[in-house]
Amino acid sequence: MLKDKRSHGLWELSAPPAPPTTVLGEHVSAEVVIVGAGYTGLSAALHLAKAGRKVVVLEAVEIGFGASGRNSGFVNAGLWVMPEDLIATLGPVHGNRLIGLLGEAPREVFALTERYGMECQADHRGTYHCAVGASGLKQLQARQAQWSRLGAKVELLSAGDTQARTGATGYTGSLFDPRAGTIQPLAYARGLAGAAITEGATIHTGSAVTGFERSGAAWQVRTAGGSVSADWLILATDAYSTGATASICEEQVHLPYFHVSTAPLGHNIRKTILPHGGAGWDTKTILSGFRLDAEGRLIVGSVGALRGTGLSIHRAWAKRHIRKLFPQLGEFELETEWYGKIGMTPDHLPRLHSYGPNAIGFSGYNGRGIAPGTVFGRELARLILGEIDLAGMPLPVSELAIPAFRGIREAYYEVGAQVAHLPIAPA
Ligand SMILES: Cc1cc2nc3c(=O)[nH]c(=O)nc-3n(C[C@H](O)[C@H](O)[C@H](O)COP(=O)(O)OP(=O)(O)OC[C@H]3O[C@@H](n4cnc5c(N)ncnc54)[C@H](O)[C@@H]3O)c2cc1C
User: Fold this and answer.
1) CA 248 to chain centre
2) Lower CB count within 10 Å: N or C terminus of the chain?
3) CA of 76 to the centre of ligand 1 (A)
4) Which domains does the chain possess?
5) Would the CA dihedral through 378, 252, 15, 326 be positive or negative?
6) Which of the listed residues 1, 33, 34, 59 should we mutate to test ligand 1's pocket, taking the one with most ligand atoms within 8 A of CB?
7) Strands (E) located in 195-252
8) How far, in Å, is the centroid of ligand 1 from the Cα of 67?
9) Per-residue pLDDT of the chain (427 residues; tens, 9 = 90+)
């Protein structure tokens, strides 16, 4: 995207063009103004516009510029947090509501892609959480037991079945989740934007919000070129928040995460990797994941930023990792590489914040924002439409809270990832 080949990498090269948008250059009125054109803001815009509301979306850069345009594209059900831990932290009302909502969330993503004919490589054939060693397997057994108690049909696979279903060597087992799947993430963001526009929403890109304040019963939201007054304000800028919404990302610790991709693989090799579709990631602390795109490129991701010393360390690790995981590849070159930042919260749960009367937003997805962002956007729309009240939202409203030692923790993530990716680190 734009001039940086390491911001959106393969996704920028293979996504259909974004729908045409303009820069805000005047004062306009709307019923709802949404800041941020990622999954959360765009899903809210789509559902509000479909219900006949006048909606204006303001995006600082381009559609999908933030995490929505650069992620791994794993459409997962649930969060990283173990389901029963989630209930323990949030309490039974919000905990069970969130689990129910997120369990259905991938289905909602795939239904939207189909309904609006989005060209985003949507593949609803499950994902594999792959166990590393005996401890990884134990972790997955516990996860499977918890999901089963909650009625979700996730399947624990043996080492042999995992190798047969993923084509990857060395895992001691895996948890197959048939509810999940994959998409081309930037294409999905652009698809959501196209659908929102079709339903009547207006999206202004290159329109960073520089300030917002309450004036009488309305919000006044300013950009360099114009302003919007609206009854409701949604802030959906998450980890990429800048300018007037910067405080949202200041409550997160940012985890860097990168991807590399090969050229399209030959037909015979391609058949050996994820032959039944899907994607995989492992149980390591410095985790890594893998998937194919529609052209048969292998995409591998892990923790780290492709800059400074990290660039050569992570790139060299990725080549070694691919060779070890998929020895059937033989010689290969990496075609693209890109990275982004994941907004983490101390308890690994997203946040619902109120920013004043009729001003609200979700943030802090902890690397699980495709399906959650889509359904949270819909729930924001339902709140504004009066279909639910604040007490009926998936999360309780909480205050913005800046974590201690944020900068040190971010440096620790990057240094830890570089150390883990050195050739001398244990495999
Ligand atoms: C590398 C990586 C891998 C990931 N992998 C996965 C995955 O496989 N599966 C999964 O479910 N999740 C994954 N995630 C998380 C997921 O991508 C995010 O949680 C999700 O995209 C957040 O969507 P959003 O709409 O809330 O925010 P974003 O997509 O970040 O959008 C926020 C937008 O707000 C704009 N903005 C910021 N400030 C302003 C302002 N002042 N004025 C106007 N606009 C502004 C930004 O430019 C940006 O476009 C990953 C994230 C990363 C970074």
Assistant:
1) 17
2) C
3) 16
4) 9-72+186-251+347-404 (3.50.50.60)
5) negative
6) 59
7) 202-204, 209-215, 218-223, 227-235
8) 3
9) 657 889 999 999 999 999 999 999 999 999 999 999 999 999 999 999 999 999 999 999 999 999 999 999 999 998 889 999 999 999 999 999 999 999 999 999 999 999 999 999 999 999 999 999 999 999 999 999 999 999 999 999 999 999 999 999 999 999 999 999 999 999 999 999 999 999 999 999 999 999 999 999 999 999 999 999 999 999 999 999 999 999 999 899 999 999 999 999 999 999 999 999 999 999 999 999 999 999 999 999 999 999 999 999 999 999 999 999 999 999 999 999 999 999 999 999 999 999 999 999 999 999 999 999 999 999 999 999 999 999 999 999 999 888 888 888 888 899 999 999 999 765 5
348 burial class (0-12, 13-18, 19+ CB within 10 angstroms)? Answer: middle
Ligand 1: nearest atom to the Cα of 223: 42
